[in-house]
Structures are given as structure tokens and as C-alpha cells.
Amino acid sequence: MRSVRKGDRVQVLSGDDRGKIGRVLVVIPEKDRIVIENVNMITKHQRATQNLRQPGIVKREGAIHMSNVLPICPECDAPARVKFVDVDGKKMRKCSRCGETF
Ligand SMILES: [Zn+2]
Predict the structure, then answer these.
(1) All structural domains of the chain with their residue ranges
(2) What is the predicted pLDDT for the residue at 85?
């Protein structure tokens, strides 16, 4: 089970973007990596192509490893260590601080 899902708000724990909070845009399960909005921005130098008439520098988010983030508990509004619990046959995360499942 992964503690982070697409659409989650997460806080970055390490690296240049340590402390940043953002929404998970993409999960790459086979690599245990995620893309978070405005986190780990990388700069690409783009040449003009037929589809892209405006050459230049393009910024976009790069993936980071899931172990470098914690999900934000909707109840505590803070990054939370989570356990997994079964709710109506669905795996839910349970905040280890307040007990909220999400
Ligand atoms: Zn909580």
C-alpha cells in the first residue's frame, strides 16, 4: 500500500523543496515516484517544433520519490504518519495523530 494518492495534498520532507505543500498531480507506481504541483521544478530547453512555435525555456515539475513526502491529514491540516485500515472493504489511511481516516 502506498500512503500517497493522486489528488492528495502532501508536504515535502527533504530536498530543495523541503517544507513545500502541494497537490499530487501524477503517481508513477512502478517507480514509487510522484509529481507534485510546483515542486521540483525543472527547466527544459525546448526547440521550436511544428506543435510548439515558441522555443525557449519551459518549466515543469519533476518526479520525486514517495518516501520524501507525507500526506496532509484533512483533520489536523498537518503532515501525518498514517496506518492502513479497512473501511467497508476499502483501504483507507488513518492519521496516527488524530485517528481520522481519509
Ligand atoms: Zn490527523
Answers:
(1) 9-47+57-95
(2) 96
Per-residue confidence (pLDDT) for residue 45, from 0 to 100 = 83
Mean pLDDT per 10-residue interval, the chain, length 102 residues? 92 96 97 97 82 79 96 96 94 95 94
Ligand 1 centroid vs 76 CA: distance in angstroms?
A: 4
Domain 9-47+57-95 in this protein, CATH class: mainly beta
Long-range contacts: 71-80, Cβ < 8 Å, 24+?
A: 71/3, 71/4, 71/5, 71/8, 71/9, 71/10, 71/102, 72/8, 72/9, 72/10, 72/11, 72/21, 73/97, 73/98, 73/100, 73/102, 74/100, 74/102, 75/100, 75/102, 76/100, 79/10, 79/11, 79/13
CA 8 / ligand 1 centre spacing (Å): 14
